[in-house]
Write a structure and sequence with these properties.
With 1094 residues, the protein is mainly beta. The chain folds into 8 domains: 165 residues, Immunoglobulin-like, CATH 2.60.40.1260; 79 residues, Sandwich (Immunoglobulin-like), CATH 2.60.40; 146 residues, no CATH class; 85 residues, Immunoglobulin-like (Sandwich); 84 residues, no CATH class; 86 residues, Sandwich (Immunoglobulin-like), CATH 2.60.40; 85 residues, Immunoglobulin-like (Sandwich); 91 residues, Immunoglobulin-like (Sandwich). The strands form 20 sheets. Strands 24-25-26-27-30-32-31 form a 7-stranded mixed beta barrel. Strands 37, 38, 39, 40, 41, 42 and 43 form a 7-stranded mixed sheet that branches. The chain is elongated and about 185 Å long.
Length: 1094
């Protein structure tokens, strides 16, 4: 990942400062631009943005960011300022006057390839680009040199300035629901970027903006191939890649489903995929290839190229074809996944797709086909592990442009470097094929066909012109020619009576890569349809019936002109080859080529296609019964052939018999019989027919061997203790191999704590005793019960690999013994954590208080834990969590019970209860009270503790003679304000709240009075005073001359308008007044005038 990030950085950050830049590239070059060999190879272009010439000698180029030095410029390549040069990614690995070719190719759809230019130091990246797909014959590159922007070019310009670029492709549409099998009609929604316009087709053709515009869900009522593209209104955005898929409506299948479709042109007169398959027009159209599983789920899909497959069968209405996925089209580089059962391969660029070819039912040879022969023969060769290369097969049904097209087979292509490279690490081969004529196939770029032919001519001529009975000559041949492959090839074709080989349908090859496999000439199977008395006798064999002589091929001469029969006839003169051939014949006839096996294998393949054959028949004709009769004809042929063959071998060759041989194992051991059969105590006895006149081999391969015994009417001289020996059969024979056994007793301690697996068999009851031969390898697997774990294995006489403490061990038996599996009761660490860590709380575990955290304990498996999380005044329990699964999510109950079965950390979360002190005070004392949430607070200063966030409602209540003035406090916010009698607040901190009251102390002085007017109103100058606790009083009256005419220190004595006993005249008089409250000492001073009226 660090390297990847670095590469991305250099691409976007350093390229603009580099002297050499990657200016343009195309991994989509299908047929748009040719190299110096006339091939349309992938390419990229370098541009010298500097002011000076640069010599690229020593620089590196790679397609992998983890291998920067994959390919190097090894000679002078000068690039001048502002010059462009093209490098071909062809794999040719050469630099010459015609072109520059790397040792790798590009795959634009793999999603993991780069083009990286690296300095000669091998580490400094000059420029790089991650390879992104584009559509056929397009390229990607720089839109301009100034801002490093990239785009797509539908008219690439290798070795020239980039012009006419587009920013990108529009976003590809998507389908909902996804393609697949649906029981009933379904509505499909197509979606993409809302700014785009979608166009679609339902006939398998490639959509463009002249097709149906998408305006809402599409009703799919019948099996339909839906394809869609999106267009942008922005002229700098290209139409999107195509989305495609098949909706199978109301169908059910038991095999894989293949859907092919395509029409690239809007001209209906142009022959394309349909015309290839349905019309037999020999063209190479493009189209889509979708493979689905039986349940309708997508296996994989691609876009590629189709072409004819078959010769005679091409005249049938139902045709096969070859398919090649083209990475250059921008959709996929291969069909990915394990298409074929039991085949270790998951990438396929090429397929042969056959509908049984010359064994097609109902079209082949008067409806005589079984629709299985070729697939059957190739599959039989595979299960028999013949030394041949076969076309693996997978039965399927096929749809063409949404129309059902019958029962087909996907076939693996053998004449393909992908095949030889995958299985044998051979990416360079000499491959010859004969079909009427002979030609060289599967050529790499460096190969000359004449060289391949010469290689074959050399070995063929050597064999046919030298005496092969001379062992030295034969040894020379064995080093270059897989004689075992030749033997298997002849045996198989003789057994099935192939009437279409040697001059037709013959392929043979050898690997050329020195460190690869299969460097000896070997044979590959081709079309195997004209077998089991079916089809034309193109080879001209003397007899194509079940009684065909097994040595018939020897009389055919040099048919096909490539020497296969002369080679056979020469090699058969060698004793070793002859013995191997006869023994191989016997081995196969007693196993994979026996009637029982061949018919059972045929039944298994017929069972795969049988549920689908009625649809095939309904589509193309014929009857089910006729087809089954054809299958039964194959079985009848096999039975007749088996009966005839072994007896006829004696007529062909200088051998005797066949004789019945029984191989018996007494005890426990194994014998390799005839380098083919492994006979042991599980499959004894082995019975078969073998030939006399040649040696058959026996070898004791395991067990405590004692001796062997031959039971026969014939006399054999032998050493009964030999472990490896050969015999020439004289007649029927039983051979018994005796083995002594070692008894091993197995125990588990403590009892009931577990069990064990012995050689894959689970043993649960102990003690358990089993017998073994010497050197038997025992595979042991400890199986502790829940709550127990592995401790060690013990034994008196045996050692264990890898160690005694491993659960899976092996030991080699050397004597009787007792093997004990020791187990420990399993315990787990439990940790309890409190959050926050400063929470002062207790928890109880099974009644035991715990208050120090983190707290860890070790418990045995199955122990019941009862946990209680306690709360207190300061801390409230919130929830618990666990790391490894005792609790899922947040567990909000404070009580938890579980049984221990794993290690875990349990975290208990608390919420702190935060409290604040609020002090209440009345000022002045006794002036009032505070009602705090219905608690009355008087003169005594009160401190009350509240939790954080508590809401308080406060009311100031004035005592008599007092009135509320205002509130004072330090921190909390008073609402609505401090001058209101009733306030509220939220406790957010400690505070001191004071209710302030003011005394109700008032003095009223009249401004006039009327003494002696006989109305008894306002007769005196009387000052009104409001005070609850009394006052000190002093008042003086002055006339206009400043003379004091009245004084009083008693507020109850008023001035009656007289002075010295006489009434003073009406007028304005002045007063001075001082009133002091006895409660608070507050003083009111007043001065003013009063009018005396008469």
């Amino acid at each position: 990942m660090r390297l990847l990030i670095f590469v991305v950085f250099t691409f976007f950050g350093l390229a603009s400062f580099s002297q050499i830049v990657i200016n343009e590239y195309s991994a989509a070059n299908y047929d748009g631009f040719n190299d110096n060999y006339g091939e349309s190879e992938d390419w990229f272009e370098l541009y010298n943005a500097s002011l000076f010439p640069i010599n690229l000698n020593g620089y590196y180029v790679s397609d992998k960011n983890n291998n920067l030095t994959k390919w190097q410029f090894t000679s002078d390549v000068n690039i001048n300022p502002n010059e462009h040069i093209v490098i071909y990614c062809s794999g040719r690995n050469e630099i010459n006057g015609g072109g520059i070719h790397t040792n790798f190719k590009l795959h634009q759809t793999k999603g993991n390839e780069w083009i990286i230019l690296t300095d000669p130091d091998g580490t400094t990246i000059i420029d790089s680009v991650f390879v992104k797909p584009c559509l056929t014959n397009s390229s990607r590159g720089r839109l301009n040199y100034s801002d490093n922007s990239k785009g797509v070019f539908i008219n690439p310009s290798p070795a020239n300035i980039n012009i006419g670029g587009f920013i990108e492709y529009a976003t590809k549409p998507s389908f909902s629901p996804i393609p697949g099998i649906y029981a009933n009609a379904t509505n499909v929604t197509i979606s993409t970027d809302p700014s785009l316009t979608i166009f679609y087709t339902t006939d398998g053709s490639l959509p463009d903006n002249t097709d149906n515009q998408y305006n809402g869900p599409i009703s799919i009522n019948n099996t339909t191939v839906l394809k869609a593209v999106a267009y942008s209104s922005d002229p700098d955005i290209l139409p999107s890649f195509m989305e495609f898929g098949t909706y199978f409506i109301g169908v059910s299948h038991t095999v894989k489903i293949l859907s092919i479709s395509g029409r690239e042109s809007d001209n209906p007169n142009n022959p394309e995929l349909y015309e290839l398959i349905a019309g037999g027009i020999q063209i190479e159209p493009n189209g889509t290839f979708e493979l689905y599983n039986q349940d309708g789920s997508l296996f994989d899909k691609a876009r590629g190229e189709f072409n004819e497959h078959g010769n005679d069968s091409w005249a049938y209405q139902q045709r096969g074809f070859d398919y090649i996925t083209r990475d250059q089209f921008g959709y996929n580089y291969a069909i990915k996944g394990e298409v074929f059962n039991d085949i270790d391969r998951d990438r396929f660029q090429r397929f042969i797709v056959k509908c049984a070819a010359n064994d097609n039912y109902p079209f082949s040879y008067g409806s005589s086909g079984a629709h299985i022969r070729d697939a059957y023969v190739q599959s039989l060769s595979q299960v028999a592990k013949l030394r041949l290369d076969e076309r693996s097969h997978e039965s399927c049904v096929m749809y063409l442009n949404g129309e059902y097209w019958g029962v087909y087979e996907l076939r693996e292509k053998v004449d393909d470097l992908d095949y030889t490279d995958k299985y044998y690490d051979q990416d360079s081969v000499a491959f010859l094929k004969t079909w009427g004529g002979t030609w060289v196939d599967v050529l790499t770029d460096e190969q000359n066909p004449n060289d391949v032919e010469n290689l074959w001519d050399d070995i063929r001529n050597y064999i046919t012109t030298n005496d092969m009975s001379i062992q030295a000559n034969y040894e020379y041949v064995k080093d270059r020619y897989n004689v075992g492959s030749l033997i298997d090839y002849f045996i198989l074709n003789s057994y099935i009576v192939n009437s279409d080989w040697l001059n037709w349908n013959t392929a043979w090859w050898r690997g050329l890569k020195e460190d690869g496999d299969k460097k000896k000439w070997r044979y590959a199977l081709w079309d195997m349809d004209n077998t089991f008395d079916h089809g034309a006798n193109y080879t001209g064999i003397p007899n194509d019936g079940p009684d065909a002589d097994p040595c018939d091929p020897e009389s055919l001469g040099n048919i096909g002109g490539q020497g296969h029969i002369p080679i056979w006839n020469a090699l058969i003169e060698n004793e070793e080859f002859f013995d191997n051939y006869i023994n191989r014949w016997s081995n196969l006839s007693n196993s994979y080529l026996s009637c029982e096996f061949m018919i059972a294998h045929l039944d298994s393949l017929i069972g795969i296609i049988e549920p689908e054959m009625q649809d095939q028949i309904d589509t193309w004709g014929g009857t089910y019964n006729e087809w089954m009769d054809n299958v039964n004809d194959m079985k009848e042929f096999m039975n007749d052939r088996c009966t005839f063959l072994n007896a006829s071998i004696v007529d062909c060759y200088d051998v005797e018999g066949p004789f019945n041989v029984n191989v018996v194992i007494d005890g426990i051991g194994e014998v390799d019989f005839n380098n083919f059969f492994d006979v042991n105590e599980s499959n004894t006895p082995l019975n078969g027919e073998f030939f006399g006149g040649i040696n058959i081999d026996f070898s004791v391969t395991s067990g405590n061997f004692s001796y062997y015994e031959i039971i026969s009417n014939d006399n054999y001289n032998y050493n009964e203790t030999d472990m490896d020996f050969s015999l020439e059969l004289l007649g029927d024979m039983t051979i018994v191999f005796y083995f002594d056994a070692n008894e091993i007793t197995f125990l588990v301690e403590p009892a009931g704590s577990g069990s064990m697996s012995i050689d894959g068999n689970s043993i649960t009851a102990f003690p358990y005793t089993q017998s073994y031969t010497d050197n038997s390898n025992i595979l042991l697997n400890a199986q502790p019960n829940q709550g127990w774990e592995m401790d060690f294995w013990s034994s008196t006489n045996h050692s264990f690999l890898p160690t005694t403490n491993d659960e899976n061990v092996s030991t080699v038996v050397n004597s009787s013994d007792t093997i004990v599996l020791h187990l420990n009761q399993q315990s787990y660490n439990l940790t309890y954590v409190v959050e926050p860590s400063n929470a002062l709380i207790d928890i109880e575990i099974n009644g035991n208080p715990i208050n120090i955290f983190p707290y860890s304990t070790t418990e045995f498996y199955g122990t019941n834990i009862n946990l209680e999380a306690k709360s207190n005044v300061s801390w409230d329990f919130l929830y618990m969590t666990s790391k490894n699964g005792y609790i899922s999510g947040q567990y909000i109950s404070p009580f938890l019970s579980f049984n221990v079965d794993k290690e875990d950390t349990i975290t208990i979360y608390y919420d702190e209860n935060i409290f604040y002190d609020i002090t209440y005070e009345i000022f002045p004392k006794a002036s009032g009270q505070i009602n705090a949430n219905n608690i009355l607070i008087g003169d005594t200063i009160e401190k009350i503790t509240y939790p954080l966030g508590e809401s308080l409602n406060l009311e100031a209540i004035a005592s008599y003679g007092w009135r509320f003035s205002h509130w004072d406090n330090n921190t909390n916010i008073l609402n609505p304000n401090k001058n209101e009698t009733n306030i509220n607040l939220s406790v957010e901190s400690s505070d001191n709240i004071v209710a302030n009251f003011s005394e109700m102390f008032e003095v009223f002085v009249p401004n006039s009075f009327t003494p002696s007017n006989n109305d008894n109103l306002h007769n005196t100058f009387n000052v009104s005073i409001f005070s609850t606790e009394g006052v000190k009083f002093e008042m003086k009256i002055f006339n206009r001359f400043g003379e004091s005419i009245f004084e009083s220190d008693d507020e109850s004595i008023a001035w009656d308008g007289s002075y010295n006993g006489r009434q003073v005249p009406a007028g304005i008089y002045m007063y001075l007044l001082t009133v002091e409250s006895n409660m608070t000492g507050n003083r009111i001073n007043k001065k003013g005038t009063v009018t005396l009226l008469r």
